[in-house]
Amino acid sequence: MEQLFQPTTYQLQSVHSHKIFDDSGWLLEAPGETQPGLIRAVYQKQQLVTGDERLGLYKFSDWLPVRRMLKGSSAPVTYRSESLAKYLGLTNLYITYSGWWPEKGGQMPSCSFKETEAYAVCGRMTADMQQKVLVVASAGNTARAFAGVCSENQIPLLLCVPEDNLDALWFDSPLNACVKLVCTPKGSDYFDAIHLSNIICGFEGFYAEGGAKNVARRDGMGTTMLSATTFIGRIPDFYFQAVGSGTGAIAAWEANLRLIADGRFGNHKMQLMISQNAPFQPIYEAWKASSRAMLPYDDAEARQHVEEIDAKVLSNRKPPYPIIGGLFDAMMDAGGDVLLVDNEAARSAAALFEALEGSDIHPAAAVAVASLIQAVQAGRVPEHSTVMLNITGGGEARYKAEHQLTYLTPDLILPADTPTEKIRQKVEQLKW
Known about the structure:
This protein is α/β, with parallel strands linked by helices and 432 residues long. It has a domain at 77-108 and 216-399: Rossmann fold. Helices cover 34% and strands 18% of the residues. The protein contains 14 helices and 18 strands. A six-stranded mixed sheet has the order 4-5-16-13-14-15, sandwiched between helices. The radius of gyration is 20 Å and the shape is globular. The mean pLDDT is 95.
């Protein structure tokens, strides 16, 4: 199918200055601008036409900045909830599910919506970039998704993951040698992995995936919103998701704006009801203080909080919250709130979801379910409102039970204080 795929026609736009420019290949920032801000894809097709289901994620390629279609992708699936909706007293609860649930159409072997990012990001690559090494920092799920996609499509990849998160790097078959893993040592966190990846990206032949700054990552994640809206027939009133960086919520907001411009799904902005796993709550603290800037967060305290939470993937200490076009702007424009959920409430919500809906879910998704329960009980969600619940990962327990697993082991373990030149020497010894 790749050879028959027509690259999507699009340009890029600075959220800050609104200037429109061509994508030279892997732009992560607007050229010539000193004010940091996100850039956004502007698609030639203003109205979305979804393709054949067999295209997987690429059925939404009209609104994905991709040059090619990779094999193996699956799109998020949306269905109307009955059991959980009845339990909560909601008449229009829709669940958008990314994970392993074949009966519902969930076919993501990583069991996470991070696959939507990986297939979009790797689909954006130019031919010359495929000769270099993509660098991805992750607390677990993103690494698993990118590893699977890059392995299957023979894309050189270097992962930077905290050693404490190695249990997240499971697969149903050994990976291609094009995937390498470098870890920060035990006791380190996602921030340390990001720091290491930034150093490596400064070496010749390596380039950064880009995180929230990569339009392909955001628009890949935005397919959850496209799935929900095209299934429902209208833009939801409320959007519930647990966040670490908040990139998924930014993506949903941007997709919302495109859907308004489309003209067929309504002209309203859904409220972004995002949640964090207490006590790790930097976004919550900043939002409640009405602050665009992130508030000071002691390193030792942050690490302790990461240890305490179940949803480790939500532990981003430097999210794209203050940047122009980032989470603060999304929340201010769309409305909504940041909610807090502790481990006990999330565990209870996970058990409830599995009992009522029929699938196990990731701790981060459980935080989202718990936040919905919390908001309904507080009277914040009207009974007849249209609600989208973004289940960002699920089916992992089932997938592991049904498949023989193998785990990725580190090629290198590098402490954060390793001198740059030594990092260079060690990394350059790896062969792709």
